[in-house]
């Protein structure tokens, strides 16, 4: 991980200790998520519901409409959309957990302990990333049971999981930044409609080729479109390393930006605390 | 202090109280207008997003119009009315949790006012949303070939949906007076609005959603609301919509009325 | 003529838990009745049953002559209730709340405004009446809550822990108002966890513990019943044996600190001067005298074998 926060109290520990602490905090984060089904369950059920409804109600679109070349079922088409939607939702939950930690004073307790400042952020993000991988696996297996196939096979599936992990860093980083800046879980949750809009104004649910006018231009400049299209190619057509790399690079770039922002926010909060 | 000089309530003594409670619910909007934003913004967002994302759907054989905004605007408005029940559900839970609701339960009058007041407020909220969505739809190029009659049935359907949604929300929070009722409240309304003919006509639904959409009374309400946007208003489309509204109204208001008794076990 | 509150064999169960296990009570016309007990003893459950907010599992309760189950509407018309935590809508102004409360009781708008003015003036909130309740201090909220409870001129007033969390000034102001109401003829049923509050206000009290009434009566009589006044005198250490001997005639010895002698005054506080004179006669100069009356906490301890935690009013209240 590229995050380095060297605060004034962040001395006396080697990278190994920081990583170990990050692992412990990451495990806490995953455990906390798993123990609150009301937090992650909607993030799984909501995309499944949308995919199930759309596949049935709009299923004829793949026969009649442009942009669905080679698509057998709308479920195949929506696999990447569901993963993206679920990860965005889950990442926000992780962010609001950080805010809750600040509100309940747990964050102060962490700061009062000699824990490495880096591992606070790393722990959260590792947790979000592992959760993202789990979400991707659930969707691949579940949609697989209903007939969806990843054309690129096992490497394609692994690419989807990698994509989910990096995407979790993007949303987790932005959410953590907001949480650290505001200290309010509500502020983080208010981001939910925004992620929904970003997702809708992209090619996630319907191909850009089938859209018109300004909406189409916005969708084609949306980074979600770039990420989703590259990944969907692996599902619909087959393995294509350059498209996959394109998707992952976009995601990694956004992740770097988000983590940088979160890092700055953490420093700002530490300065206020000391 | 002397004995109370207040007579026992007459049959319609609940009316001023219902109005007062409706007024109180609306105070929330007037004092914190931001609280209204999600209620208005969500249907507008759905209108814009669906019209943009799914514009090509209109090429499917059974769509009765070629104007995507005309197709989705009534759906967004009915959806907005259905969501209006959230507000009253959450406000009631908050009142119960803070103890404010005890004050209302201590009122010697009929319980009717405690149901009708919030329902009135829900209708007003839904009308604000409907008007806002309609304005955006017209700006985006929606057409209303059904004219004034088309608008009338649209608003009738929207009001009816709002009252039904309030009945559902109140009945649920009376039985489950805590924050946990929130997700159930939302989920049911959400599922009901989506398992309907909201996005795609019945004839073009190819899978498991078709029987749900066929049986969902909201599909008839949607047809009622939508008819003026895709053609002329006809009695053949109007009466099933009115029957669906009436049926749901009776069922969910019995649900609400029996629920309030459970608050004082 | 029936009493304002009559309760016989009142029971409330929540599943297997018996919250109230057979309570009998009578509150007489024009009295302030203090209802005491630790948290979780069943105080609020009893109040909720008496105010029709909770149906009893068994037993009978009549308030203002009406049965709380079969004539709940009539009970609600006769009672005023100031609820625990003063649950009021922070978005409404004081005046709007008074008006809503009046409508809740079927009072016309013009009459509501007239009574509202009088009541807000009375509780000292006239100036703040146009402000949203969210901006009120804790004391102002309680006073508004009291005004709301009075808007329909109830004959019986229920006050559920009216001063919890208030600072001393606000608490005393509320006590004065309750006394004034009582002088005007309102019967007051006051629950509190503060023994001092019951001591200061109530003419009669009942102590509830574990769902049962363990003591009931005039607080003074109850206190006298649990024991004598304790007299403690501090003297020079070498005088201690003489002092003990001089005081032995007035009561049994009690534990005291090292340089003092303490006794339980057998014949009550009236014998303090005689006891001090006995010390003087024995040639013992007294450095300090303390006289402790038995407290309601002693009554509670005697009835239950426990002390009432958090029963003393905290020195620092909430901000006013």
What does this 3D model show about the protein?
The complex is a heterotrimer of chains A (274), B (265) and C (320). By secondary structure, chain A is mainly α. Chain A has one domain (10-273). Helix content of chain A is 77%, strand content 0%. Residues 1-12 of chain A have low confidence and may be disordered. Chain B is mainly alpha-helical. Chain B has one domain (18-23, 32-54, 61-260). The longest helix of chain B is centred in the first third of the chain and has 31 residues, at 68-98. In chain C, the strands form 3 sheets. Chain C has a 6-stranded mixed sheet with strand order 6-7-8-3-9-10, sandwiched between helices. A 4-stranded antiparallel sheet of chain C has the order 2-1-4-5, with helices on one face. In chain C, strands 12-13-11-14 form a 4-stranded antiparallel sheet, covered by helices on one side. Chain C starts with a strand and ends in a 16-residue tail after the last helix. The longest helix of chain C has 16 residues, at 168-183. Chain C contains 11 helices and 14 strands. In chain C, helix 3 runs parallel beside helix 5 (138-150) and helix 9 crosses helix 10. The radius of gyration of chain C is 24 Å and the shape is elongated. Chain C is an alpha/beta fold and 320 residues long. Helix content of chain C is 35%, strand content 25%. Chains in contact: A-B, B-C. Chain B binds chain C through residues 1-9, 13, 16-17, 20-21, 24, 27-28, 31-32, 95, 98-100, 102-109, 264-265, and chain C through 51-55, 73-74, 76-79, 81, 83-85, 87-89, 91-92, 96, 99-101, 103-107, 109, 132, 148, 150, 152-155, 181, 184-186.
Helix and strand succession of chain C?
A: EEEHEEHEHHHEHEHEEHEHEEHEH
**End-to-end Cα distance of chain B:** 32 Å
| Count of structural domains of chain B | 1
Span between N and C termini of chain C?
43 Å
In DSSP terms (H or I, runs of 4 or more residues), the helix count of chain C works out at 11
**What does the average pLDDT of chain B come to?**
87
Most strands sheet of chain C: 6 strands, mixed
Strand content of chain B: under 5%
Number of strands of chain B: 0
Low-confidence stretches of chain B: 1-6
Instruction: Report strand % of chain C.
Output: 25-35%
Instruction: Summarize the helix and strand pattern of chain B as letters.
Output: HHHHHHHHHH
Classification by helices and strands of chain C: alpha/beta
Radius of gyration of chain C: 24 Å
Shape designation of chain C: elongated
Strand order of the largest sheet of chain C: 6-7-8-3-9-10
How big is the Rg of chain B?
20 Å
